[in-house]
Amino acid sequence: MKKIKNVTCIGAGYVGGPSMSVFAENCPNINFTIVDKDEKKINAWNGDVDNLPIYEPGLKEIIKKTRNKNLFFSNDIDNAIINSDIIFIAVNTPTLKEGPGAGFGADLKYIISCAEHIAKIAKSDKIIVEKSTVPIKTAEKLNEIFSKNNSSVHFEILSNPEFLAEGTAIQDLRSPDRVLIGGNKSKSGQNAVSVLVEIYSKWITKEKIITTNLWSSELSKLASNAMLAQRISSINSLSAICDATGADIKEVSNAIGLDHRIGRYFLNPSVGFGGSCFQKDILNLVYLCRTYGLDEVAEYWYQVVKMNNYQRSRFSNKIIQKLGQDLTNKKITLFGWSFKKDTNDSRESASIFVAIELLSRGAKINVYDPQTSNEIIYNDIKEYSSNYSNIIDNIKYVNDPYKATEQSSCVGILTEWDEFKSLDWKEIKKTMVNEKFIIDGRYILKDKIEEKITYL
Ligand code: UDX
Ligand code: ADP
Fold first, then answer.
1. Which of 174, 243, 296, 435, CA to CA, is 20 to 30 A from 406?
2. Same domain for 228 and 207?
């Protein structure tokens, strides 16, 4: 088997950064170079470890140990491609904004441009690994690009989807439930699979490394995310029934989860799932089903996204019911901007949609979150609201939870940061005005404090 010396990862984001760091930590004899077209991001990865482009517990410690030893961050994409035996593609695959499949299908333009670039630059055989979540049969498209643009080099494509969850990425990467590697059944396909299995087996037991054909691997990632998101929408749908009937969703969730066939994980009710994956991957699955004429199956999965949207509006509607349709000059504080605790990532976070709804009714919003900033908040509002210039002056980040709530009529909890549980809620109430309405969309204060709290 070929001895691997240099590995490149294109994309220094939430997937590429942490995953290559853990590879580097476990494979001291291989050099890992992470490249990105975003120069600012690469400079940040090479800068102060307390200001890395992404926040992830445990990440900065690995970076300190491996950076410039066998882990490198670079803008020199061409040299990295030329020198590497394996190239991981970990670029973003957002939902298509226009054209056929708009609003559902995955936009593969970044992956395609990587493939075209690799084909143009490569001078020796390469193993190309799809790390980004992609629609089934993407490998076929990549193959076409490689054979059309460079017939003198052999490109062997593998699918190795990443299952890490943000906030626990390092732990997930060090000790994953499974590693999935899909490859062609041909001799060169199976050789490439063995090369990747060998690298992972430096720190993961062989039983946890499963190999499949390319299409099963591509689909398994979409399917896993769809099943996880479906559980959240199911528990959130039950929270609406609890709210209407007087049952307690935390008690119901506990009772359901004790059945070993169901299990207790991923049954936390919330103001809806966020993050860059769940909604995007389900919409992608819906598009795939429609493409194959499976309309009933498409409708089934689409319901998971609709339920998620419903849960977000249920949260803002509760505030509107309490404070009135017209929120002009009402001050509201949102605790939590990131889509889950222990990350600075706010892509698709429920907070964005709740904030836009309240701002459109004239509310003034303060946001407190241990890992956000005005820059992140403004960018998020800009991306999702066509009314940006009229509402943006009414929202701001306040870097102190007690100051953030001053003069507020309502505090809404949208992210389950541990810090929120240990705040002095009696003190927070004192800073507020009028009816002092606290609504917990994450059920984290339940049984923790005696204050009167509203739940979803
Ligand atoms: C997810 C998958 O878990 C991961 O395997 C995949 O690689 C990428 O997508 P991520 O989106 O980073 O990971 O985080 P995850 O922990 O799955 O949470 C997603 C959203 O669901 C968050 O907003 C979270 O708060 C919410 N959630 C999760 C709930 O509302 N209830 C739960 O019980 C669990
Ligand atoms: P993910 O959560 O999937 O990791 P991110 O958006 O955090 O997504 O990261 C993807 C990274 O890929 C971004 O930093 C982006 O600049 C980078 N990227 C996208 N296309 C290319 C490309 N053609 N060449 C190099 N880097 C790219």
1. 243
2. no
Decide: 439 and 454 in contact? Cβ < 8 Å.
yes
Q: Which of 278, 354, 440, 442 to mutate to test the pocket of ligand 1 (most atoms within 8 A of CB)?
A: 278
Tens digits of residue pLDDT in 367-410: 999 999 999 999 999 999 999 999 999 999 999 999 999 999 99
CATH number reported for the structural domain that contains residue 350 in this entry: 3.40.50.720
Q: How many domains does the chain have?
A: 2
**Is 245 in the same domain as 353?**
yes
Closest CA to 94 of 103, 104, 105, 107: 107
16 alpha carbon – ligand 2 mean position (Å): 8
218 located within any domain: no
Rounded to the nearest whole angstrom, what is the distance from the C-alpha of residue 273 to the centroid of ligand 1? 7
The string of pLDDT tens digits covering residues 220-239 is 999 999 999 999 999 999 99
Residue 29 vs residues 3, 10, 124, 155: alpha-carbon distances, Å: 10, 20, 21, 24
State the pLDDT at residue 331: 97
- CB of 269 closer than 8 Å to CB of 239: yes
Atom of ligand 2 nearest to the CA of 38: 16
C-alpha 333/C-alpha 382 separation (Å) is: 20
Q: Are residues 320 and 260 in the same domain?
A: yes
Residue whose Cα lies nearest atom 7 of ligand 1: it is 163
Task: Give me the domain span that covers residue 266.
Answer: 223-455
pLDDT of residue 1: 73
- Expressed in angstroms and rounded, the spacing between residue 336 Cα and the centre of ligand 1 is 15
- Report whether pLDDT(452) > 90: no
